[in-house]
User: Fold these one by one.
Assistant:
Number 1:
Amino acid sequence: MAVSVGVRELRQNLSRYLDRVKAGEDLIVTEHGHEVARIVPSSTDAYAELAARFGASVPIGRLQDIVAELPARSAPAGTTDAFLSESRGER
């Protein structure tokens, strides 16, 4: 179960809340009553659990490195991106 804490309270008692997270507790950080972040224990198990719960995958590397390895692609013909590229002289 996640515990909710306001930004000010978190700042004033950061060590105490980090101890709770280290002990396995999830923390929901709120600002003016709205959730702005979640702090979860740093372990692969926590990431795997979240990924399974939301149908996502666990990152295997830095996003910048993964994107750099993707093949370059051009916009499909007939799309706004293709039109803009052509009109700018990008081919």
Number 2:
Amino acid sequence: MFNQQRPDLKTPIGPSGGIGVSPAAMNDQDFSRLSAYIERELGIKMPPAKRVMLESRLSRRLRQHSFKDYTSYVDYVFSDEGSRTELIHMIDAVTTNKTDFFREADHFDYLLNDILPKARPSGGDIFRVWSGGCSTGEEPYTLSMVLEEYRRAVASFRWSILATDISTKVLGHAVEAIYEEEKVAPVPLDYKKRYLLKSKDSAKHVVRVKPELRSHIEFQRLNFMDDDFGIRDRFDVIFCRNVIIYFDRQTQERLIRKFYDRLIPGGALFLGHSETLTGISISLRSVAPTVYIKG
């Protein structure tokens, strides 16, 4: 079983601190330096059309540390001190973290009704799932509810989840497992009763995922662009949905092959409904919309 880990969530120390005025627009050189790094190190496409988006997402970091312009900020990010204290927060700001409970719900139906009844767990008697690009935790916690529902029907079933993301900010939220009540609206009522705890303070309107589910999940920071993920386990199921859409085709293919290597024979890969394996020559067969089986 995975060990519970909490990401290192250090507060950055800027060169001056405080809240500054709105910075001037980002110039060509600053955009070029940032976009080159983002594409090279994160695999995220950053064409000129995304300059305004990049400015918007980074403007808060500039104001927070009183940088007068983007040039000063970019110089700091790539300095020795900035690489230790600010670079990770720049990455947090530019990565996309849209997610919901039971997003693309047919995937969870397929997992519960088609995959789990046929499962032969990879970890002896442990069914292992990897949620890649887990964001603030809605996907792995949805998975945990589905897996626990199956365990209620099959008492011998055991499961664990590895949940990874590049952003320490969203991982911190995921580890806390606290959500606004409106955020859990898609969760079925019986699941809410079994797996979510309401705050004792009725004015807060928040819930928390029960510790029985949280104890099965390890959260870990991971960059999909790394040559070696440092993951040696093999998985029965990998969810990586609405992530590769942000990568160029070469990066997509390289990542799919890494997932393939980490799946057991007969393991399942779930992609987002806007993503496809068309043009990638690999032994994954389609069994449902954006659901693929190895071998």
Number 3:
Amino acid sequence: MKITPLLLAGALALTSGNLWAASGRQDSIDRLQMSSDVLRSIMSTPDKGIPDEVVKDAKCIVVVPHLVKGGFVVGGEHGRGIASCRTPEGWSAPAFVSVGGGSWGLQIGVEGVDLVMVVMNDRGLQHLLGDKFQLSGDASASAGPVGRHASAGTDWKMTTEVLTYSRSHGIFAGVTLDGAVVEQDTDSTRAIYGRDASFRSVLSGNVRPPQSTLSFMRVVGEIGRAGTLAEATPGQQ
């Protein structure tokens, strides 16, 4: 068989595509692991972490690990992370998110800062299910309380849709994050699920978690035991 330039170009394109898909999938799996590590730190530092009441009442948790290392800067690029929401059957399968733009109130320039967003009520949940929303624009957001118990004097239960935190060197702090846009990371969604799957379908519990998300779902389930939900059962993908 004679190898023509056209056949060679096609073979190279196919190889490059397969390599990109494999790389994208591994990157997404790595992000699941890093997000799991951040969630474990919530449970391991109760006196200096996110209060029990916040975690127990959360509708959804969004984790964006290693923001600065990922290129998230003031007015600039974006970070990528994972979201999961409570459903009647347990925590939802993980949805892949992209967070871009906005301005930070604390810790800009600190390498390895992680972002945690806790969706606290149905209004915030509906914004997240819509595939794209802006913090302090579409959804009200404020720096979350820190410590074993949230202060009784705060009104976060009544008014705030999203509480935002940063973590550096294992310590959580409330952080203001105005103007950031949260939307679906479609590339990572395809890499893990093998197809397009909307935020609404994934976070509402209508998509089974693939096997590759088992470790992340186990950690989310451990956090969920503080509330009323059991662990989700991963699928076989």
